[in-house]
Amino acid sequence: MLYQLQLQEFAFKEINIHVYVPERAQVQSVYKQQRDINDATPFPYWAKIWPAAYALSNFIIEHNHFVKNKNVAELAAGLALPSFVAAKYAAIVCCSDHSADAIEVVQQSVLYNRCTNIKATVFDWQKLPVDFSADVVLLSDINYAPEIFDALYNMLLLFLKKGITVILSTPQRLMAKTFIGRILPFVIQQENIVVPDNDTIVTIAVFVLK
Question: Is residue 20 one of the residues assigned to a domain?
């Protein structure tokens, strides 16, 4: 295990979820060491529960009929908080991330929570396995970089053509406005959720696409 982990509790309206989170100071320290060796080392953004993940988790609880008894997949899951919430209602949940370190932490959370219906696996959403299948796909804060918007949009179209429901949560970033405009024709439900973020609050938009 690359990082020391802290067990963090997330309290929701109906349920409490415990997930392991890497110790923040150590994340910074390890990143600095890796950058000293290789300037191209990406920052491990997966090592934090972001507001969009918390908002998506809230949405799932309030509208759990979308995932109830379904085959659910979370892509670019990071620490996979929405997956653990969805697992309370879904038949099976597969969460994935391109980072093996992230999935290693998620697997520790799976063991702690004694989850029997969650599978955590390593793959990049831009290179989906040929056998990928799901009834519902969860995405939180995945539309953060304009250079991936076309690939993301094409993936969403592929899912929708297959009859897969997509639930996407996103901060209200100006640079993502064009991308959101492209997906609006497929939106069957939209909700704005206010969640805490350190010492402030942020508004997260959640979209259900069908």
Answer: no
